[in-house]
Specification:
Length: about 120
């Protein structure tokens, strides 16, 4: 089951790491606040060194969209639910941080020279 949620990144918790029979692992949890009439706080996690590094590129206060999976499992007659993020996209930067500069859209002018719209193009295509 793949789901998506948009909200403000409130806090990144400490990175957890260890060793298992399958090798080294790392995990980081973070708190996201939804953007609704009655905002909810959701604790989510990313697994793997590449995803932990990706989460590190986001700052507290940024608005992000997170794609995630929900999974529950039973242990000693108790149920535990894991909200595991697998993609995080920036929606907006936190206040006071300038947004990333986007390249200007391609208009066709200047690609093969700096011909103006009034000049005739003699290319056969």
């Amino acid at each position: 089951m793949a789901l998506e949620i948009t909200g403000k990144l409130l806090q990144k918790l400490h990175v957890q790491s260890g060793q298992s029979a399958k090798g080294a692992w790392s995990k980081q949890e973070f708190i996201l606040e939804t953007q609704e009439n009655f905002p909810k706080k959701v604790c989510m996690s990313v697994w793997g060194t590449d995803k932990v590094a990706e989460l590190g590129s986001f700052s507290d206060g940024e608005t992000i969209t997170v794609s995630f999976n929900l999974e529950s499992r039973s242990y000693n007659e108790r149920w535990y639910t894991d909200v595991r993020a697998w993609r995080i996209e920036r929606v907006s930067a936190p206040p006071g941080v300038p947004p990333a500069q986007e390249p200007p859209p391609y208009t066709g002018a200047g690609y093969l020279g700096s011909a103006s719209d009034s000049e005739v193009d003699d290319l056969p295509f």
